[in-house]
Write the structure tokens for this entry.
Amino acid sequence: MTTTSAAPHLWAAPSATGPLDATVEVPGSKSLSNRYLVLAALGDSPSRLRGVLASRDTQLMAAALRSLGARVEEDGSDWTVTPGPVRGGVDVACGLAGTVMRFLPPVAALADGPVRFDGDPQARVRPMGPVLSALEQLGVRVEWHGEPGFLPFTVHGRGGLAGGSVDVDSSGSSQFVSGLLLTGARCTDGLTVRHTGATLPSLPHIAMTVEVLRAAGVVVDDSAPATWRVEPGAIAGRDVRVEPDLSNAAPFLCAALVAGGTVRVPGWPSSTTQPGALVPGILERMGGTASLDGDVLTVTGTGTVHGVDLDLHAAGELAPTIAALAALADSPTRLRGIAHLRGHETDRLAALAAEITRVGGHAEQTEDGLVVTPGPLTGAAWRSYADHRMATAGALVGLRVPGVAVEDVATTSKTLPDFVGMWSHMLAGSRAGAPA
Ligand SMILES: O=C(O)C1=C[C@@H](OP(=O)(O)O)[C@@H](O)[C@H](O)C1
Ligand SMILES: C=C(OP(=O)(O)O)C(=O)O
């Protein structure tokens, strides 16, 4: 492994000096951890959650649920949640977590008083309007403290929700639908959610919400297009194990294509609603081979990466990683179906275009995506924009391009606090002396 020198606030992304031969243990899924936490806090008895992701997004969720009246005890990655009556008169800090800011306002509507939500400066530009206007349709008073439709705001809980039917335009984020569904069973009349927008991103994440609800004994009808009906009823306390985060596995698996060699991820589920399940197929199209032996996913690459034309509307959170890989390809890549990434942790289409261009590639935004045209790349500072996936994208480029220095790599703590350690460990597993 070689490293580049850089200013102290920059992380010199290590370059690979040979093919990889590494096994990477990936912690629990952010999306599953935060869904299980919400349902456990709304449950009819305590839950034991095993293999929970311990990261900024899940700690924020735990802290918020404690404020709202649940007991959340952490013991490494095994957490116990004891539900309690939902309490108002509290503040919820969302950080930059979409799952906290979109999943908890419906919970707050059950509280016996006001719940004020705020977050990081970048959180204040993430779209919030549709989930809160759905609550208003249900008779909940929402008070905006800044620009309507954005953090900060207060949800004035009145001790319960009757429920009924709501229309929500979820084209900006699937999390609007998921947030409403997660609380639906606690509405006295249940909840019917109808999506009204032209497009709906991240369908696997909505399927994930439906699946975790059903596993907790909640009756959900998703048979009509773009409509979900959650029946009222108890949410069962459970003992569950969280799957590894397959989207967080993606940069490591991509590394096998960039450096050549093999990366294995144990604990890969044979079936899952995580959109990261698409990664092996995408990497095969981009020049790798992938196989699942038992629960170990193995990806092998040659160092040659091919461009692709890819619709990522189902798996937008993979886009920064795939765009970084595309910058190292032997032909252009077109990513489509991801206009809503402009409302993610940062405007990811703008951020990716800027950073890929800064290192010498060419990336242009389209109406709903990005066209990446590889070029000879040179090292430069790679900005993260407080976005964990931008930081890991920079690390991936740095594997091939000496002199890439990732700004604020600590932002990876949003979902993967030990990213730097895991990345170094992966590289330390590379075969010494093998040609680059
Ligand atoms: O429900 C979830 O856990 C998520 C849904 C998706 O959000 P969008 O539909 O806003 O992309 C995804 O990108 C995000 O990382 C996690
Ligand atoms: C979009 C993402 O996160 P969030 O849950 O904050 O929306 C992401 O992790 O890529």
The radius of gyration is 21 Å. Residues 4 and 403 are 5 Å apart (CA to CA). The pocket of phosphoenolpyruvate (ligand 2) is lined by residues 97-99, 317, 344-345, 389, 415 (CB under 6 Å).
